[in-house]
Design a protein that fits this description.
Elements (H helix, E strand, L loop, with lengths): L1 E7 L9 H7 L4 E2 L2 E8 L5 H13 L3 E7 L6 E4 L1 E3 L2 E2 L11 E3 L8 E3 L4 H10 L4 E4 L6 H15 L5 E7 L17 H17 L13
Helix pairs in contact: 1-5, 2-4, 3-5
């Protein structure tokens, strides 16, 4: 098995992005699966172009993308991507797309096709807080969550993809009052646990992961 793991470059005025920093520190092999690491730009459409080119080059079985969710306190495994860009801030090339579909010919949403509940359980068993998230936002993280699923449905049938959001690093919240953070070591451990679940569970487990709001 080959797993392509992507992480974004810094954005929004930050000097570091825990996404690419944690991805770079993953081992090259997990449970006999080859781990291919890729930095992607925090730029609408260009991010998907870079991933598309990597799918052609490496032919991965799974594409797992990782992004920073400043303000979240745990590792959040995304359930769904929606077909909308509504950027609160400009991306790294100054684009600020508002209320436009990612793919005009695409459906309203895609559920990811990874074992998200098994991933959360595996992370929790590693003694790291984790949960299911039902919104990936409307910025580049959602753009990639939705966009990679659309690429799979239209060009790369049979592949699987999903998205994990991670908290700030401690050094990022020194000047951000009351913002949670997580150490890079713990984030890397969580990603390894999630990837192990992807490898071990072709189908998801049936446990509750819902929310009331």
């Amino acid at each position: 098995m080959k797993i392509l793991v992507t992480g974004f470059d810094p954005f929004g005025g930050e000097k570091i992005n825990p996404a690419i920093e944690s991805v770079k520190r993953l081992p090259d092999c997990i449970l006999n699966a080859e781990i291919i690491k890729l930095e992607i730009p925090t730029v609408c459409h260009k991010s998907l172009k870079v991933i598309d080119e990597a799918i052609v080059k490496y032919a991965p079985d799974v594409i797992l993308s990782v992004g920073q969710a400043g303000g979240r306190s745990d590792i959040t495994v995304e359930r769904v991507g929606i077909n909308i860009d509504d950027c609160r801030i400009p991306d790294n090339e100054g684009n600020q797309i508002i209320d436009e579909p990612i793919y005009p010919d695409g459906p309203a949403a895609y559920f990811v096709n990874l074992p998200i509940k098994a991933m959360v359980r595996q992370i929790q068993e590693a003694k790291i807080p984790a949960s299911i998230s039902n919104t990936a936002g409307t910025f580049v993280c959602n753009h990639v969550t939705y966009g990679v699923r659309h690429l799979i449905e239209t060009k790369y049938k049979g592949k699987r993809s999903g998205f994990i959001h991670i908290p700030y690093l401690p050094e990022q919240v020194v000047d951000k009052k009351d913002k949670p953070s997580m150490s890079l070591e713990m984030i890397v451990k969580a990603l390894e646990a999630a990837i192990e679940a992807i490898i071990q569970y072709p189908e998801d487990i049936k446990v509750t992961g819902g929310a009331t709001h």
